Amino acid sequence: MRRRTTTLSLLVIGLVAAVVASASAAAGDVARSGGVQLTLPDGWSKVVSRDTRVDDPRTLLVIGTEGVKGIDSDCQVSSYRVPSDGAVIVVIGWRDSVGGTGLLPLSAMKLRRGTFDCFAGRGAVGRLTRRDRDFQVNVMVGDRASAATIDAAFDAVKSFGLAPRA
């Protein structure tokens, strides 16, 4: 009887581990939405957008670490709860080019406090133009986010691309 219980316990533990592993992204998985894509860092996942806007700009894609979730907020970018050890990336886009993207290149993104209204933590913002459309890529990190989490966020930012047309 004991051997059967042990075997059953091991099967249940293995099943739970498989479910948890499948809930988080494997390194190299791609999240796509709104015509854009980002490579998901290991353990990150796509987050349901809180933006219900029909005008410009619109939230196109949100990815984050475990525990990131939408919250009620009047602020478009910071409408997400960021765990103290986590991070989130929010991509917004305009239908057309609105100009001024050269002032905030992705390569110059640096974490600073006070970057976003409605978010007291550290954040960074960059803007770029692709196919005559402007995009803003926003990073928010918790105060206890590790260097590895921050590096993963910026690696994901560097992976920004337009999603292939279906």
Strand tally, please? 11
Helix and strand content put the structural class at alpha+beta
Structural domain count: 1
Output the helix-strand order.
Answer: HEEEEEEEEEEHE
- CATH level 1 name: Alpha Beta
How many DSSP helices?
Answer: 2
Poorly predicted runs of 5 or more residues: 5-24
Using the 3D structure, state the CATH architecture. Answer: 3-Layer(aba) Sandwich
The gyration radius over C-alpha positions equals: 18 Å
Rounded to the nearest angstrom, the distance between the terminal CA atoms is 55 Å
- State the share of residues found in helices, binned by percent: 10-25%
**Order of strands side by side in the largest beta sheet?**
3-4-7-10-9-8
Do you know the CATH topology?
Protein Transport Mog1p, Chain A
Q: Please indicate the percent range of residues in DSSP E strands (runs of 2 or more).
A: 25-35%
Shape: globular
Largest sheet: 6 strands, antiparallel
Oligomer: single chain
Fold blueprint:
Elements: H1 2-23, E1 30-33, E2 36-39, E3 45-46, E4 58-64, E5 69-70, E6 80-81, E7 87-93, E8 112-113, E9 122-130, E10 133-141, H2 147-158, E11 161-162
Antiparallel strand pairs: 1-2, 2-11, 3-4, 4-7, 5-6, 7-10, 8-9, 9-10
Brief synopsis:
The chain is an alpha+beta fold and 166 residues long.
